[in-house]
Amino acid sequence: MATMQRVVAAAQSSVSTSGGGGGGGGATNYASSKGVAASCASGTAATELVVISDQFPVGLRVLVVDDDVTCLRILEQMLRRCRYQVTTCSQATVALNLLRERKGCFDVVLSDVHMPDMDGFKLLELVGLEMDLPVIMMSADGRTSAVMRGIRHGACDYLIKPIREEELKNIWQHVVRKKWNENKEVEHSGSMEENDRHKRGNDDSEYASSANEGTDGILKAQKKRSNVKDEDDGELENDDPSTSKKPRVVWSVELHQQFVSAVNQLGLDKAVPKRILELMNVPGLTRENVASHLQKFRLYLKRLSGVAQQQGGVSNTMCGPVDPNVKLGRFDIQALAASGQIPPQTLAALHAELLGRPTANLIPGMDQPTLLQASVQGPKRIPIEHGVAFGQPLVKCQSNVSKHFPQSMISSVEDVSAGFGVWPSNNVNTVVPSSNLSGLSTQNSNMLMDILQQQQRQQQQSQQQSLPPEPSRTINVQPSCLVVPSQSASFQAGNSPASVSQNCSFNRNSVIDYSLLSSQSNNSLVNIGHFSNGDLKTTGALSGYSGPGSISPSVSSCSGNADSSMGRQVQSSTITFGNARQPGFVHNMHDIQGSYGSKTGEVLDQGPLQNLGFVGKGTCIPSHFAVDEFESPMSNMNHGKLFMENNGIRVKQEPSVGFMDNTKVGLPVLQQFSSNDIMSVFTE
Amino acid sequence: MLGLGVDRLRADMNRLLALLFHQGVLDEQFLQLQQLQDESSPNFVSEVVNIYFHESEKLLRNLRGLLMDKEFSDYKKIGIHLNQFMGSSSSIGAKRVRNVCVAFRAASEQNNRAGCLRALELLEHEYCYLKNKLHELFHIEQQRVLAAGVRYPMQH
Hints:
Chain A: Residues 185-245, 454-476 are annotated as: Disordered. Chain A has 34 helices and 5 strands. Chain A is mainly alpha-helical and 684 residues long. In chain A, 61% of the residues are buried. Chain B is 85% helix and 0% strand.
């Protein structure tokens, strides 16, 4: 409650400074309101904002960018009349610098589309990636294609000149909506509501099926599956549009790969449907098809960047399969699918999203056993650990881990370095250092993987004779993850022998290519499926009871589930703990872990887990980041811990709150990497 | 007598505005502009319109340069200029200038050189007409303010 008062105070101070240059007090204003909202139940989040808003839109900090001075002057006057705090700028580059220098000093950006020094869309993209501010585009060009371009680039609104005062009066809604959605996504992680849908425009149906993964999302997916299953079995080529209700292009893996390579060739920001279409050169494909797919693709990227920041909060719900009411985030799903909470369809829906295909199509029969097995296994383990002694299973866990993991760890390291070879090192850096980015990197690398994978798909096909010729990406991925090391057999032996043998058969053949591919995210799926899930559930209990030394394995597995890409590495890092190769770090970790255990009891928090991942990563991944990244994770941990102590009751929300703070603390890392790297992946 | 002058000047202004509206030279956006004028910026309309004139003349020069340059004209650049011209014109409510810009842009998108040249001439014409009329309007406005200023101290 103290925070709430602070927010109100901050709001008032921002009013008083509204004429000024946007000082520190005003700067944190909305950010902290976000924090408050996040720490309250979602229902009250809205009212929270209302409470603050007796004067709310007043003092909204607006940055206007337009090379047309006439418009700039008019807009300035109009916004001033709305009692907003206006900063005007006639050059996009200057505006960008301003935004970078004074991060958090603006609430919303109004930008012209056509500017000589930098295209407005480019600015929009950069702003979206770097500061995640709502950006409203303006142009005299009101043609649908132009507006569509704005939407595609992630503009939250597109105003056609002449702009009227009434339109500007309303722009505060974008600020609120954005914050609100963020909160909601943290709390309901992934359940989309009207606001968001509105924002995401045409993407609706796909989005709903893939991201609306509350409990009903699961039901939906199941339902969907049973409906489509029959056709699905018969349909191997998957180019048959009969599965979808309306005739439309089915974005097969190949087609999507062509699309991605076309986009890469053009560069993400220069990729327009027409050019992509030309490059793809696929008969029967229309510009509209490409345009809508491109839009989805961009939204997908955008969402990644958004989700990445919420990762901490999202993954928190992870730890609570205990609680049936917790809604699941996109990333949890992967984990949960592995632990048997979610049917593999849902998982596939996730990947289907981009391809825009019906979910069930994506799951070849082959794969289900693997996942199912995992799911059977998970529940099996838990009762044992719960029921019997707490000491023993722990030991068992650990021994499993320590025995088999070190090898897998090595393999992961190899993967990563291999990844370096293949992808610009920037990307990998992003992937690795910041826990906040983990979600992003996951999906990102998913996509990378798609690209690569699809290129290699033909080989793969020949090797995977047993799979239908249209294996989904998920599935492709899975065998490949297992492929990674020859050790896969060894670590799976610990937990799920049956699935091992299945996958091993691929492994032999597919060799190095896959290990390259699988280096990041995909592994996590498998890993989770095969060894971590068992531990996952118990973590809550374990952390409560066990001594620091024995915690680490369970911890690792939990975080592994939470954010897939990181998770894998975390897992590998745990090994380091198990072996106590880096005693110093391990100890730090354990302290914090301990305090958590005692405070929270049942729910494990993501904050420290991710940090563990961090540090672990630092320790086990060779020279590259080791030095730099240590600091931020450590500070993060402290943060997390502090938070815990402050409000011990509201365990569930903490990670999200703590996370926000974390983002600030660890930000230097984040900010540097976040923006360009996503871009570079696709422009490369 | 002076009071009458003020009223007459106001009537003149209104008549001129009505004419400009009737001719489609201006639209309601211009009224918005007038409404934005307040104590904090008492000369807002003329300030903005002067910025507009300044910018527009630059744009017109550029457009002419681009079209006159050689056989080859950079239509894309023309399009960008026109887009800006459209934006600013519509923002001050210069409806006819904006409409000519739309036609001009259509011609430039078809790489229609002759059409572009015609449109440019029309644009220059429309712009001059607007400029003259707005100057006239501001002139009357100025007189009115002066007249009101003279009368004011006399009342007290």
